[in-house]
Amino acid sequence: MTGAILVVLLAVFISILRITLPYLEGQKNQIADWISEQYGTKVEIGHIDAGWHGVGPVLLVKDIRLINSPQSPIRLSIDETQIDVDFWASIKARQLVSKRFNLVGLNLDVNADQTSGAGSDFPIVNALRNLFLVQLQRFSVVDSEVVVTRKQRRQTIAIQRLGWVNKGQRHQGVGQLRVADLTRNSASFVLDLFGDEDKLNGTFYADGQDLDLSPWLQQLLPGDGAIQQNKVNFTLWADIQESKIVDVLWQLKNSHFGWDDDNQTFVNVNAGVIHAKPHLNGWLFNVDQLDYSTNGFDNLLVDASAFLDENRHLTLNLSHVPIAPLLPVAAVLTSQKLNQAVKDFDPQGLITSATLFFDGQGIKTSAHLDDLSLQSSGQVPGFDNVSADLNWQYDQGTIALLAEQGQLNTEALLGHPLAYQKISANIRLDEQADGINISMPGLSFVSDELNFDLQLSYSNDNLQVATRVQALSIAQAKQLFPEELMGKNTYSYLNRALVSGQVSYANIIWNGNPSHYPFADNSGVFQAYVAISDSEFDFDEEWPNLQQLNLNLLFENEGLEIDSQQGHLLNIPMTSMHASIPELASDGVLSINIDATASGEDLSQLMLKGGLADSVGSALQEVQISGDLSSKIKLVIPFDDEPVVASGDVMLANNPVRFDSIDTIFDGVTGKLHFVNDHISAENLDAHYATQSMQLTLDGKDQVSGYLTNIRLAGHWDLNQVLKTYYPGLGEYVAGIADWKANLDLTIPAQGFDYTFSLNSDLPRVSSDLPAPFNKTTQMSMPLNIRVKGDQVASTVNLKLGSQVSFEGILPHKEKRFSRAHLAMGKEPGYGLGAGFSISADLMQMDFDNWYQSLHHLITQAPQFEGESVLGQPERIFVNASEMQALGQQFHQVSGVIKLLPENWQIDVSAKELKAQVNIDHDWLGKGIDIKADYINLDQWQAKEGQNKDKQLDITEFPPISFVCSRCRYQQYDLGKVELNLSRISGGMRIDKLNLQHDESMVVAHGNWLMKQGVETTSLSGKFNSDDFGALLKSFKMNSGVRDSNANFDFALNWQGAPHQFNFGSLNGNVDWKLGDGYLTEVSDKGARLFSILSLDSLVRKLRLDFRDVFAKGFFYDKMTGTFQVNNGRVNTNDTYIDGAAGEMQLKGYTDLPTKGLNYKISFTPKVTSSLPVIVAWMVNPATAIAALALDEVISSAKVVSSIDFSLTGTIDEPQLKEIGRDSREIMLPAKNVPQQPQVPDEPADDLLPPPMPESQAEDAPTAEGVG
Prior knowledge:
It is built from 24 helices and 69 strands. By secondary structure, the protein is α+β, with helices and mostly antiparallel strands. Among the domains are: 4-255, no CATH class; 1023-1259, no CATH class. It starts with a helix and ends in a 9-residue tail after the last helix. Residues 1222-1268 are annotated as: Disordered. Residues 1-1216 form the YhdP central domain.
């Protein structure tokens, strides 16, 4: 029942619908509102026509417009919409379902950026997607356009026809379309999709036949060549994933492109595959095995890749493509002018990689080329085997070239190719309205011989060249001069004049039309600025070349200017030189002006090597001026046969002038020297010789016999200064003022020379401290006459001084040392003295010390040549003197010969006082001096008056010394045999041996004599042994009072100073001494140093007074022992012990030797058994001694003295002995019968005092002299 009712109601509804459809026109606004409500956007409908057909309504809607807000991404208008509604399917699906949906004249404008942007939510977008993919089972589109806007760029797709079918999840469209900006005709396509409307997957297939791509190609290729025809055939597949195209495959076949340029350029694509994928915001393309043909080239294969960005800018990448086949294609990419320039260079090679960018304005290219070769074009050089990097942008570009091991094709520019190791260049091409400008802002050329940088610009027949040549030789530099551009004369002169040298750098500039050289109309300029160092420039064949030259050459058109701040014209320093050749021609004139400080030697050499060699050259060869000269020199050198004129003035300012032939130099010459060719002259030149002023006049001119120079000289000399500088040995003795005159005549023939020289002076104001016969006072006149005559081989020198001195010698000029010379003092020997230097002295009296010092200075400090004395060492010295003073001693009947032997100096001397042989080895410090004396007998030694005994010697320069004297006697002392050996050690001398042997006594010692920080010290260690010490002292006239006692001493002492500078103040060390049994008599021990130190004579004298019986005949002892410790002259002892027969004595204290002060404590302990009676008597007073002897026999006990203490103070000269205490003890004695003891008075009687000392002993009383 219910179903029947529903069927009835549905039938009623359909009937009503069929009745009301024709009246929908009146309801179009309500329908538009309903659609607007359903799809979320306002819709306008122009007209509705409706009816019922078959199973559902049929609608015809015209002029549908979507009225969107400005933010909406969709703009839609449809001219006519035909809809067949499936009524029952719509009821079932509860939405509009149509079986046919035809759209005619659809215009859809979609802003893709808005639909895909974040936050985009427009209902109309979803509604349309749902409509066309879900609601409509089938629809078609005819004569419609879809405009897609992306990145503000609109792309129009014209759809001629489209049939679309939706079957569930499958969606398929078939039709034809055309991209308006790419082609002029359409291609068929099929779009097959799967999935829902949000995630569609599928394939887009297109097939293009004879498509015309002119609109797109014309945008990409903006060159002058217009596209005449193109036919493109292809098949395309596009893979769609999730509603996005993810892969495209484009297969090309049988396509043709043609341009209307002069050569009817064409390209045929036979086959190829292009693979594309979306990348970033564009598309990435890969071209695989593109088979193409072009003018003259068939079946070429190329692989490429490309990128089409969102702005439809295409970037194309190529690799390994030959250049020549691409040139026709390149012609359509650039202007005709640029094409012509490319054709002129005819490039060949391989594009290993290239990137081309097309953006509608033109083309940009970046490419790397290998094996590139360019032909020369005009003056622009070509090259081959080059790699290049090309960058082009629209109407300009750059080419970076790099080549190795090839040639630069510069035949048109330089006349020959330039081989290179490496060449790199930057070329710039600029397309202008009046032609192509070619510039080369940087070309670097590197080879074994040549390195340069070049800049070039060529435009409208105007050539601009700037070349920077790096360091190279002159020979290499000449290879860069362009003969055609420079002109033949300039080119020829430079090739001859530039001989050698090093170009520091060169700048070559050319600006102008090459056909207009030498630019007399100032339409251009040629300049070559060349900085040359250490070069040689042959400016004229008759004159020396410029050498060692730092030169600036400026070639400007036909002229040449030369400036130099450093260099040599032969040897003249070119500190400031200017030369000019206004016109490089055969009749030109070279003017050289030198206004500079040049040396005289260089000026002389210039004249000798130039056109004035026989005149001024000869003059200046003899009169050689050294040092810098302020000069004005002018050389006028014609290029024809006219003579050269050299003239000038040379201002001398303290210059040395050397007369070469006689090897004589005058210093500090001041004045003006004038020359005109061969004649030189100078008046009143101020000069210095041997540091003294003098006047000099000279005149020189070429004569038949040779060049003759006369020189007149006069001087007023201070000999102190002269000898101090030139002969310091003589200067220590000779002083005063010498007035003299001299004359020199010098003749220089073609070979050799000869001269005569004379000098005279009476020396009235000259004094000499030399020993006789050289001694002289200022009141004495002692004429000096010198005559020298010589030639180029040798000179003979004769000198006479007064009446007792003469000298003669022969001086070879080559050796500059006298080969034969003799100095005679006193009587001249009547026999020849042989070759070499010899001295003879035959005088009545002679002071050896003075002569030794004088000769030492005169010989060792004589003028030298090459480090050796001009005189040399005397090989023989003969001495005879009746009396001779030597070492402060007087010797008589002296005869001596000194010989210079190969190994040493041998000195044999004999006199009344000595006979000895001395050998002084030439290795002074190595082997030293050996002295062997048969005897030396000196009565006394006296230092030379005024001699400083303490003068310090540099002992580090002492030689080793070996001295042996068989019999030495000094004054009255017989020293016996003396041996002394000294050897060198670091810091001074070692005393290896010091032995003195006299009868039964001997001293054996060794030590050191050192210097440290300027202070000398001496140390000696050794032993002294004597069988009879007293007898030894007595033999030296020193009566010490010691008798019958042997002695043994061990000592180690040192003091500040030399061995002969012994002193108490710095004396330090130790002495261990011992005397054997003997006795001391009451005598002064003056001279016996040991006893003066202890002042024993004072102690013995005291004890003798108190123990008269015991010490009456002396102080007998078994031994004496002790040690001394010496510290800065203070002799200290703590253990001096005397074992005497009467008692034992101990001493402690010191003696200060510098002050002679004494400070001792002495303890005397009597021996009881041997001296009891005396001791007892001493206890009361000496007067009781007799009674004590009597009591010795009868008493059984007695009180005796056990010890006595003394204090010894004062000085050695005045000792003060004082008793400071005594001890006694009682001893038991055997009972004996003794006489009665006499009465002892209370006070001692005066007549019991000791008797006075005998005069003989008083004379020997000690004086307490200090030890020294």
